[in-house]
């Protein structure tokens, strides 16, 4: 990847900090939108915008899939960027960025530089105390992980990306392309953003408020409100929200929400919510040795009896019978 000097004045200048075992697709989608918008022809020349992968030691940085990216600019030679993008990766207790990179990140924030968190990069920004007072976006898939780590934070888990002043965060690889297009549209123009996405076989630039692609149930739903409602249901399994609460959070009335669910899925929001909780319970029955009581409580049911009655009514099988039929013999419970 040919990258010109970050000191050359461009309409848009971006620096990247890649975490160890970063998400390659999030980085690639974001930078490819920049690449395709940077030139006025198909030669990938960084004419209109510039980007650089920063490092303290210039060692290759491995992605979560094993592919490595070679940094091109040392931190001490880094330019004055419009945005500093942190690309996160696997979530564990290992240090994702070196002490030098974290110091550079904090210093950049103090200078007023806009910070971007791609995928689990939001975890790194939060851990570095750089999101205090800001709304942030996290993938529905990692929503519970985020809440567990940062107990007093409530991230947005049903949008593609969130822009709050000079903090920009997105939900993952799909969101990374649209967040990059948002920046291209802001600094270079909408035609350049659309051109980039179309070349990448993406129909149009989506706003941050658009719902994230969720689990399989949302794959064919075209109603954005219904998608967002289901994403919120998926994020609130252990302590289910009432349908009135969901409707209020979405800014509509309960009756309106019920009508939209009926039009999109021919089922009520309550029936869909119950089904999601049963699905989660059945997944845990298959894959863990947790007691039925623990699984029931973790999936928003009052007790084991409540889960058993609901499963029997909705799926025609009790938790005990389901586990005996489908669980591997070495995990079966007496």
Task: Record the SSE blueprint.
Layout: E1 12-18, H1 24-38, E2 49-55, E3 61-62, E4 68-69, E5 73-74, E6 83-87, H2 99-110, E7 114-118, H3 121-127, H4 143-149, E8 161-164, E9 167-170, H5 173-187, H6 190-199, H7 224-235, H8 243-249, H9 254-265, H10 269-287, H11 292-298, H12 304-315, H13 319-326
Parallel strand pairs: 1-2, 1-6, 2-5, 6-7, 7-9
Antiparallel strand pairs: 3-4, 8-9
Helix pairs in contact: 1-5, 1-6, 5-6, 7-10, 11-12
Short description:
The protein has helices at about 25-40, 100-110, 120-125, 145-150, 175-185, 190-200, 225-235, 245-250, 255-265, 270-285, 290-300, 305-315, 320-325; strands spanning about 10-20, 50-55, 60, 70, 75, 85, 115-120, 160-165, 165-170. By secondary structure, it is α/β, with parallel strands linked by helices. It has a 7-stranded mixed beta sheet with strand order 5-2-1-6-7-9-8, with helices on both faces. The chain has a two-stranded antiparallel ribbon with strand order 3-4.
